[in-house]
Each structure stands twice: as C-alpha cells, then as structure tokens.
Amino acid sequence: MGTTQLETVPEPKYWHLKTVLTEALDSEFSVGEVLPNERDLAARFGVARATLRQALEQLELEGRLQRRRGVGTTVAPPRMGVAVGTEQHVWPGAVGDAWRPVDCALAVPPAAVAEVLETAPDDQVHTIRRSRVTHGQPVAAELLYIPASSVPGLSAIDAPSGATLARAVLRELQHLDLEGQDRAVELGSARADDAKELDRLPGAPVLVVTTRYFAEGRTAAVSVATYRADTCRLTFGDSGGVEIHHDPERRAS
C-alpha cells in the first residue's frame, strides 16, 4: 500500500479521513480482516494518531469496524436482522420470546428505575438478567426490573436461584393483564459488565432500549436492554414496535 497524504479540506480532518478510510475498507479489506496498527495507519494517511482514533471511533459507531479483545480493530460484518418487541401487549418471557434468562436476584434498582416503579429508594426488586444471541453472536443484554407487588404469588413457587428463579418470576408476571407499554431509545456507552457479555470493549457504542410495562394503572416492570450499535439498526413500524434489520446495502469486500 502506498502512502496517501490528506489535502487541506474545510471539514474536520478526522471526518475527511473517515471518508478515505471507508473507501479503503470497501476496496482493500474483507469482513473480519484485522486493520494495520494505529502507527502504520497514521503514517499511511499522514495524520496524527489522535485524528486517526477519531475517525476509527466514528467508523465503529457506524458499524463499519469492531474492536475485539486480543485481536484488534477488524472490519465488521453486515448488521444482523433481529425482531425486537413487535407485539405491543406481550409480557417478557411469553411464548416466542427470544431472550434467554441468565440470572435473577433481589437488588436495589437504579434511582431512575425506582422512581418509575414508584418503589422506595432502598426497596429491593427482582432483577433479571437476560441475553440475546443471533447467528451465534451476542447482540444484546437486558436487565429486567420487577417489584414484588407485580408477582405477589411468587413466594409459593419453589425456585431457588439463577435462571430457574428468573423463569419463575416471568411466569408469575404473566398473571397480570398487560395494559400497554412504551419504549425509549438512546445512544450510550457499554458498561464493563455489558461489554463483557456482548464481547465488546468498555465504552463501545451501544443502543439502549428502555421499555415500561403497564398493568393495574401503574408501571409493573421496566426493561433496560443494551444492543450492540455496530450490529443493530432500529426502525419503528406502524404498530409502535421496534425491529432490527440487516443493512443489505453495506458490504465490505
């Protein structure tokens, strides 16, 4: 590969570099291929490593690159199609739910969640961790917060811990009549625990989908699901549901 020097341009240098790197990804690299190290890339394009990092971070945010532990920066595969919450009146854990229960414990939820659930600041709620895998790749991690008032019959169920307890809580939740739900989506950064589960580095861009489930005139449960931003593209259909689709026009060759 020859050396390409960037000319003076009116836009930020890292943004112009991102365009140049995109062209290189399309013409010189294949999916899964490891990019040269930062020193070599900075020398090739005649930029400071700080400028290069900005461009690489932007490409990661757009799903063109992935940073992998022990591997480096690789060309990302096309985004995978995953349906998310297309039914408006279905509890988590209902038939056809693609999430896999991992663990369940009583814990004090974050203050913002406690406020939505209208629980006392120090009240513990059932906190279920679930994961989602598509085509053998982890794409999302979820924390589902359910107060004891939403599962009053749970004490009669013999479910000691872990995934068994999680499934028991979800079964008990089905006894409530779901009145509706709403969702909010925002861009965030992967926390250490989510990053490990999603095979990402801490701070990697993620999409956070927060869902509130309503029953008996109150918020009966809250879901905070973290999706890999490099893997998922969210769209909203007429039903109000959220879907994640392939991006068929984007390919690395």
Short account of what is shown:
This protein is an alpha+beta fold. The protein has helices at residues 13-28, 38-45, 49-61, 111-117, 162-173, 192-197; strands at residues 65-68, 72-75, 82-84, 100-107, 125-134, 137-146, 180-189, 205-215, 218-228, 234-236, 242-244.
How would you describe the overall organization of this protein?
It contains six helices and eleven strands. With 253 residues, it is an alpha+beta fold. Strands 4-5-6-9-8-7 form a six-stranded antiparallel sheet. Strands 3-11-10 form a three-stranded antiparallel sheet, with no helix packed on it. A two-stranded antiparallel sheet has the order 1-2. Helix 1 (13-28) crosses helix 3 (49-61) and helix 2 crosses helix 3 (49-61). The longest helix is centred in the first third of the chain and has 16 residues, at 13-28.
Helices and strands, with pairings:
Blueprint: H1 13-28, H2 38-45, H3 49-61, E1 65-68, E2 72-75, E3 82-84, E4 100-107, H4 111-117, E5 125-134, E6 137-146, H5 162-173, E7 180-189, H6 192-197, E8 205-215, E9 218-228, E10 234-236, E11 242-244
Antiparallel strand pairs: 1-2, 3-11, 4-5, 5-6, 6-9, 7-8, 8-9, 10-11
Helix pairs in contact: 1-3, 2-3
